[in-house]
Every structure is written in structure tokens, then in C-alpha cells.
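Lecture 7 notes: from sequence to structure.

We start with a single chain of 328 residues. Read the sequence below before looking at the structure.
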Amino acid sequence: MTAANAEAPPLRERLITFASGSEGVNIAIPSASPTNYHQLITAPDEMARTVIDGKLFRPVGARPPYATVLVVPGSLGVAPSHVRHAEVLCDLGFATCILDSFAARGVTSTVANQSQFSFAASACDVLAAYRVLAGMDDIDAERIGAQGHSRGGTAVLMAASRHIADVVAGQSQGLAAVLAAYPWCGQQFENPAVGDTEVLVLMGDADEWCAPVQVQAQCHAIRLTGGKATMRLVAGAHHSYDRDTPLELIADASVAPGAPITYLADNGAMILAHSDTADPGLVDRDAFVGAIRSGHGRRGAHIGSAPGEAQMFHEDMVAFWKQALAAR
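Now the structure, written as C-alpha cells:
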């Protein structure tokens, strides 16, 4: 964990006001902590409940109802780069909401242990936030998107899946678009249909945390279902290339980018790489342990930017959201 992230208080305790004068307002988001995707899809009433935090910024000078972008951080929690992205988009006239899935669960970082709460819970949080935002009078429920980074990128991609969105958000309801920045795609639905949700992935080919080939596979599979999914692979860029900070080694990062994909049946049950049977009882840790035992796990991975990469991300981000959430 970087020193800046380690010392930062929970998002709900931070007073954040953008240069435009837009002041962040805390919102409570009723969500849940499913043990796996199978429970999220088939037994939502059995999930442990939790209330996570969001901080909502309304654009100054824009007229409601606002198109809105949910900003979903990754394994290091809310970083200055996420706040910057939210401010840039707010200045363009979007409402923005930064999500904090960690504080309510007593987590500060998942870098060394991604199984502290499930990836299914992360996807559930995204759609729980969508529900809260869609219920606000000054938010345009038809123009809510989500931008996720790293683990957050995984969350927004999975939240776009109709298998999950139909259950959590409501039949045919959900995100208008998602921007997944350098997501982990080690778990994918066999049928990854996202309906009308537009998907963009931004990633570097030097990423040491997440395998670009897994992400390419998921985008291609989405297109085969009739969905709209595109990917920009940036030559030489590392994980978190939007941070605009020098490349640094996160020594305690637990990664396994070379591990095979774990597929999910339509009901969310995992199918491990060495099996052809969907097992509803499997959880994230089972797949992670399997990756380590097969020799794919290791410690240590880099994050950061080379000159010009953060600006490139900024331009791609702005262009995407202007197009994806244009007035209908």
C-alpha cells in the first residue's frame, strides 16, 4: 500500500470540494456481502447485509436531471486519481459518485489478500449504488454509468452482466455504460451478455496484475453475444497508468496473472480450470489457492505512469463518457 493511501481517512470522513464549488455529499448505500456469485444470483435473501459509503458531487451550473458516473476504486482504496477523475467529469456536467466499499467492511486494502470480501460483493455494491442514484429526483436513471479501476474495473464489468443486473438492479435495468480500467478478468461468465450496456476497457500491455489476454477474451465473448465492447491496449503501460505517479513496486501485492480463467455458469457457480463441473459451493479463495498451487501466484507488482500516459487516459475517459451518456 502506498503511504498516501495508508494515511487517508475513510471517504465519508473527508471533506472534498471541487474547484468549481461542488461539495461532496455523503450517501448511504444499502448493499450486501454475498459469499460468491452463486449466492448473489440464486439466494440474495441469504446474503449478509451491509451499508457502504458513497460521496456524491453535483455539477455546478448544469441543469438536472444529471447524467451520472459512479467511480469505483481498486484494491488500494480511494486514491487522489479517483477524486481527480470524478472532478474532471463533474466539470463536464456529469454528477459523479465515488464509491467506498472498504470502510464499512473494516478493510483498508485488498492488495495482499483479495478474499477479504468477495468479488461478487464488489459487483453487488456497484448495482446497489446504481439503485440509490436511480431513485434520486435529480439523477437521470437512464444515463448512469460506472467507471472502475483494477478490482473496481472487475466490479463494473461483472455488474454489467445481465445474470447479475437482472437480479440486483431489476429486469432489463442497470448501467448505461461501463469504463473498466485495467480490470482483472480471471472470473468470467460462460455467457457474458451485457444487453445494451456499452463497455470500454483501457489497459496497458505491461500490466503485471491482470492479464490483457483474459480481458481480450471477455470483450470478444461479449461481442459474440451481441454486446458492444471495445478495448484499448496501450503499448508499454503498466497497471494504474492513469495515476500520474512514477512507477513503483507494491511488494506485498498477491497476483497470478498467468492463471487460467475460472468460468461461471449462468447461476454464478464456479467452474475451476481443471474441472467441467459447476460447483455452487466454491468461493474466490478456492480459485486463488488453485492458481498458487499450479505455480502462477507470486508477490510484487508495479503500478504507475510513464510521461503522457495519464493524459492519454484522461482523453480516452472524457471522450467515452461524452459519447456514452449523451442526451437521449
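The chain has a mean pLDDT of 95. Keep this in mind for problem set 3.
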